[in-house]
Amino acid sequence: MDFLQPASWDEALAAKAANPEALPIAGGTDVMVELNFDARRPGALLDLNRVSELAEWATDNGTIRLGAGVSYTRLIDELGGRLPGLAMAARTVGSPQIRNRGTVGGNLGAASPAGDSHPPLLAAGAGIEVASTRGTRVIPATDFYTGVKKNALAPDELIAAILIPSAAGPQQFSKIGTRNAMVIAVASFALDLDIERRRVGTGIGSAGPTPLRAPDAERFLEHVLADQDRWATGADLPAGALDRFGDLVAAAARPIDDVRGTAAYRLHALGVMAARTLTWAWHDYRQNGPAAGRG
Length: 295
Ligand SMILES: Cc1cc2nc3c(=O)[nH]c(=O)nc-3n(C[C@H](O)[C@H](O)[C@H](O)COP(=O)(O)OP(=O)(O)OC[C@H]3O[C@@H](n4cnc5c(N)ncnc54)[C@H](O)[C@@H]3O)c2cc1C
Fold this sequence. Notes:
Elements: E1 2-4, H1 9-18, E2 23-25, H2 31-36, E3 44-47, E4 57-60, E5 63-67, H3 72-79, H4 84-91, H5 96-101, H6 104-110, H7 118-124, E6 127-132, E7 135-140, H8 141-144, E8 145-147, E9 150-151, E10 158-165, E11 171-176, E12 187-194, E13 199-205, H9 215-226, H10 230-233, H11 241-252, H12 263-288
Parallel strand pairs: 1-3, 2-3
Antiparallel strand pairs: 4-5, 5-10, 6-7, 6-10, 8-9, 11-12, 12-13
Bound molecules: flavin-adenine dinucleotide.
């Protein structure tokens, strides 16, 4: 097996263009498991760990540009206040060792429907910046996941960064597994209440062939919050709104029965998580106003 080790982003893109079959490796927490179990035998590995550009993050006009190679630990420590939803999800990933190595870029590369980054990225309306020697493009998270463990990357492309609006209101993430830590989600849900833009964002994990949004639930809640100007006043949610929101989230899912849970359980769990995260987020907003979510 060839081992390619570019020292810069330009070298990495050139190496990928010359060797489109080379498998990128960032933290290696997915790749090494696949190699160790002989689930994959790439002709070449493209090690991205010396590409310092990937390990940087920056802010630009309210948007965070998170380098694909920033570890979960750094994301939690350095961006927990600006990206609370993604940081909540990051805290549930694996163990401290996995969070020290694992990256959001790697989660996107693997594109597992159970990956914990995906629901908050969908909810926040994130974009995935990808590049090749041909140029750079930004793929909306909603278009990035194309099938079970498949994404929209062309063979010569690499993930450069994730573009995520800084939280403008409360964000929440909830994950159900078979135990509290070191667990792949049976189902997960992320909620983003953008008070400034009066936008509701949702993300569903582990309950469909890809991570999903729940557009009908988003429109319903936007309507509820516009009614009586709740966006501004933070007034009580009307009777039945939590249940209806939960039902609409569950209706957007397309789960299957598998070793981790049944489709019926996942649908039930999503309804519960949607109602709970909305309760938490609305409580947060009422306590802290528009600063809710900015940790
Ligand atoms: C014990 C254990 C527990 C885990 N628990 C969780 C969990 O709770 N939640 C969860 O979501 N995941 C979990 N995972 C899976 C894994 O940690 C995550 O998916 C992580 O985000 C992968 O990041 P990485 O940098 O290690 O990726 P890598 O393993 O390096 O790469 C993963 C995939 O992404 C591709 N890739 C990486 N970087 C790029 C790039 N810049 N451009 C293009 N492609 C790229 C690789 O080619 C590969 O296909 C766990 C794994 C282990 C071993």
